[in-house]
TrEMBL record:
InterPro entries: ASHA1/2-like_C, START-like_dom_sf. Pfam families: AHSA1 (PF08327). CDD domains: SRPBCC_CalC_Aha1-like_GntR-HTH (cd08893). Belongs to the AHA1 family. This is Uncharacterized protein YndB with AHSA1/START domain. It comes from Bradyrhizobium stylosanthis. Residues 14-137 form the Activator of Hsp90 ATPase homologue 1/2-like C-terminal domain.
Length: 156
């Protein structure tokens, strides 16, 4: 039996290099990830942290980094008590040229059956990735409220 996972595929009118920069630069992530900053040197084995309002909300380790094609890191949630006990998960970004577009596949796995974390990321990732696509293609955000990150998840 396969374990629960989240997969999201998007086609973005950009270059692999620009998308890589958007995924790894706090200057970009602050814009589309609702103010969140990514921190890492993006080398395999290096620490990764996601900060929101100066607080580390998630952390992990870089598992794979092959710019501008593949980025993977472990992901441990810290912010909400209900999610802290869930195991470390994994995020994989696969970036593939597709004609004049780039195909971005986001795989987030390592969830426990019946856990709350899969539901939380299943709401968060579409909001984040929709903002990313809009920013790269138009230079504008969609105006999705930060509350969309927790839609369907009763965060306290």
């Amino acid at each position: 039996m396969s374990k629960p996972q989240f997969v999201y595929v998007s086609y973005i009118e950009t270059t692999p290099e620009k998308l890589w920069e958007a995924l790894t630069s706090s200057e970009f992530t602050r814009q589309y990830w609702f103010g969140a900053e990514v921190r890492s040197d993006w080398k395999v084995g290096s620490p990764f942290a996601l900060l929101l309002d100066g607080e580390v909300t998630d952390s992990g380790e870089i598992l794979q980094a092959d710019p501008p094609r593949l980025l993977s890191y472990s992901f441990k949630h810290h912010k909400f008590a209900e999610l802290r006990s869930e195991p470390i998960s994994r995020v994989v970004f696969t970036i593939e040229p597709f004609g004049s577009l780039v195909r971005l596949t986001v795989l987030h796995d390592g969830f426990v059956e019946g856990g709350k974390y899969l539901g939380a990321v299943s709401n968060g990732w579409p909001a984040i990735l929709s903002q990313l696509k809009s920013l790269l293609e138009t230079g504008k955000l969609l105006g999705i409220p930060r509350a969309a990150l927790n839609k369907g998840f009763d965060a306290k």
